[in-house]
């Protein structure tokens, strides 16, 4: 295996691992809050489930970037890359979603916990409550776009 | 446990907060005709054991029990609630000392306590086995017991025990990891000191008495407070004003019941920010304290209705609610 491939694979692994770590963290926190609400008021199950799932998207974005990277570097078919600089570029291209995914999923989880608190007290305010964690999603999407743009424009 | 370990507990508490009585509920109950109507209203809100009991004390006891059971279920650090039970514990100590020293079984009611209820407290005091008491109580228990035996002065026994209770709360509170608990204890000590000073001023107590009764407090200069209270009501009000307790002075001017109301409302103000907190044990502690305040207020209303107080007189005594 070439050094370029090692760099590229490292980037691919990081995007799934870090973004997935953040999502697991966020969904876990929101899940505890959701369970607390459902323990007292089972009718709120559907609403709190949606809020719990919001921090889970970063993990999916990380996975998407990993697939594109693996596909472009020749792991899933095609010619494997050999150039060290190209491998390094793939790794750097993966970092936005890896880092922003981790941080935004954690904060989206905390915001979801707070929003679940709103639903617990005022179930009719679900629409407004959902907007708060959804705002955090913006930054994960921006990071995803940058990663995809960078990866798809690297010239092997 | 870290703050994030309380997410489940806080979410449950958020749902529970919906069933807390609001100021509107209290206002409606205050306007009701009699005790029976109030009990009916409370039964509709789920108070009591659901057996339609018309025994006010049984309904209140059921609510106290429900709160304690919920808090136990949430697995909050027992040390937190142990601290909040200090006033009841020290009250039982006072009641025990007085009962033994005066041989009168009717000198004071005891609070229910799993470890230091009436039976246990009397046994410990009779055997003088003070080592069986919590460490923070031992010294004052021995001193108050000796003082009561020697002087038969119940008031002196009270001030010794009450001060020790406040000091123990302050010490334990400052060690607590919970910001809310630290602030609540600080407020409790300050409010208690102000209450002691106001009562002592009304009954013309000496400066020496005040110095002995007031517990040291971080947010209040108790030395100045003692001097002011030993002089006049005006001096006390000015002293409170100068130390950032302007509203206490205003309430004191208004009436004794308005002042008592201010004392409890001040403590509720301390816990109110927890309504916006979604992690940490703070909201659970706040809920527990809010429930205690709620039960206390309902007790005031029921007592007022049972004794035929006017709506105006009752309204003056009811406390602000947490929600």
What does this protein structure show overall?
Chain A has five helices and no strands. Chain A has helices at 3-40, 45-53, 57-72, 84-121, 126-152. Chain A has a single domain (3-152), classed as Four Helix Bundle (Hemerythrin (Met), subunit A). The relative contact order of chain A is 0.21. Chain A is mostly helical and 156 residues long. Chain B has 323 residues and is mostly helical. Chain B folds into three domains: 1-76 and 281-323, Orthogonal Bundle (Topoisomerase I, Chain A, domain 4), CATH 1.10.132.50; 77-169; 178-271. Chain B contains 17 helices and no strands. The two termini of chain B are 27 Å apart. The model of chain B has no long low-confidence stretch (mean pLDDT 90). The chains are: A mainly alpha (156), B mainly alpha (323).
The ordered H/E elements of chain A are: HHHHH
Number of helices of chain A: 5
Percentage of residues in strands of chain B: under 5%
- Relevant CATH superfamily of the largest domain in chain B: ATP synthase (C/AC39) subunit, domain 3
Structural class of chain A: mainly alpha
Residues in helix, % of chain A: over 70%
Cα-based radius of gyration of chain A, to the nearest Å: 18 Å
Which regions of chain A contain 5 or more consecutive residues with pLDDT less than 50? none
The CATH class of the largest domain in chain B, by name, is Mainly Alpha
Q: How are helices and strands ordered from N to C of chain B?
A: HHHHHHHHHHHHHHHHH
CATH names the topology of the largest domain in chain B as: Topoisomerase I, Chain A, domain 4
> How big is the Rg of chain B?
20 Å
- Quick one: CATH superfamily of chain A? lithium bound rotor ring of v- atpase
Examine the secondary-structure arrangement and name the CATH architecture of chain A: Up-down Bundle
